[in-house]
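Page 42, continued from yesterday. The earlier attempt failed because a stray header line got pasted into the input along with the sequence. Redoing it now with the clean sequence only.
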Amino acid sequence: MRLFRFAFLPSLTLPLLLTAPVMAQTVGQAAGQRQETWVRVQTNFNFFVPGPTGDSNEARKSSENARRSIYEIAARECEVLREVLAKDCRIEQVSSTIGREFGRQQQQDGYTVNGSLNLSITVK
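This time it went through. Structure tokens are written below.
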């Protein structure tokens, strides 16, 4: 009787072992769909924002406008990527450096802005 019980064990476990790899490949995917791969995109930019650079309220507003433009660029970059190449877009990192530029001779006072964006997209 004992030998008879163990004779069925290989016949039950063999189908489970053979189907396990197939089940592992399809977990989390609907039939016929492929998983989307995220691709990283990096964008660098440099520009100048004219305006006062002292300690006045106008100078603080000028500095704020320079920082605001960085965030507007970041938001617009995802829109551009969606229009051209991306199905979905996520901003991962925004970094910036803003430096005061004091006017010399014929150059205006203002802020030099350097920045970079790291984005992740899924391709259409």
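Notes: The radius of gyration is 29 Å.
Reminder to self: strip header lines before submitting.
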